[in-house]
Amino acid sequence: MGRGRVELKRIENKINRQVTFSKRRNGLLKKAMTKTLERYQQCCFTPQPQHNIPEHETQSWYQEIIKLKAKYEALERTQRHLLGDDLGPLNLKELQNLEKQLEGTLVLARQRKTQIMMEQMEDLRKKERQLGELNKQLKIKLDGEGQNLKTSQGLWSCCTTAENSHFPLHPSHPNPMECDHEPVLQIGYHHHYVEAEGSSVPRSMAGETNFIHGWVI
C-alpha cells in the first residue's frame, strides 16, 4: 500500500517546527554522506577499464619531447658561449655572431647602468634641495634667536646701569677693596719694623713711616 499524499502546510507550533526541520536536515546529511561513500568505494575498489592511447598521439608526444630537449641543449650551449666557455668548436662566422650578441648585451647593460645613475643623481639633487631649505629655515631661526639674545643683553645692561645710578658707593669708601680689614698691597722695599717698648707712635703712623723708609732705601 503506497503512501498517501502529504499536504504541505506551515507548522504553527515553534517547537514542533524546529524538531521537524532538525530531523529533515539530519536525514539529508546522512543520505549525502552515504552516497559519497558509495562513490568513493566504487572509484577505488572497482577496476576501471584501461583506455588505449592511439599510436599516433604517442609518436607526436615523443617528437615534441625530442624538440624540447634539443632546444634546451641549444640554450645551454649558447649560455656557455656567452660566458666564454667551449669556444673551440665555433667557426669565424659563429664567433662574429657571438661578438655581436655580446656587444648588444653590453650596450643594453650600459644604458641600464646610466639610467640607474641618473635616477640616483636626481634623488641626490632632491635631497640636496631639501637640505638647503632646511638650512635656510634653521638660519632664519638662529638669526631670530640672536636678535632676541641681543635684545635681552641690552635690557640687562640698561637695568644694571639704572641700579648703579640709584645706589652709589659711600664717599668715605670710594673703592670697596680699601677697607681696614683687607690687606694693603705695598709697592717697594718691604722693611720689618719692630716697635720699641713704651713707644707712643700709633700703628698706622709706624706703618706709613716704615713704608716711606723702605721705598727710599
From TrEMBL:
Location of the MADS-box domain: 1-32
Species annotation: Gossypium australe
DNA-binding keyword on record: yes
Chain coiled-coil ranges: 92-141
GO MF: DNA binding; DNA-binding transcription factor activity; protein dimerization activity
Domain of life: Eukaryota
Lineage: Eukaryota, Viridiplantae, Streptophyta, Embryophyta, Tracheophyta
All copies of domain K-box, residue ranges: 58-148
Keywords: Coiled coil, DNA-binding, Nucleus, Transcription, Transcription regulation
Predominant localisation class: nucleus
Keyword Coiled coil belongs to the record: yes
A single Gene Ontology CC term: nucleus
Pfam family, one: SRF-TF
Classification via InterPro entries: MADS-box/MEF2_TF, TF_Kbox, TF_MADSbox, TF_MADSbox_sf
Gene3D superfamilies reported in the protein's UniProt record: Transcription factor, MADS-box
Name recorded for this polypeptide: Agamous-like MADS-box protein AGL6 isoform X7
Compartment(s) of residence: Nucleus
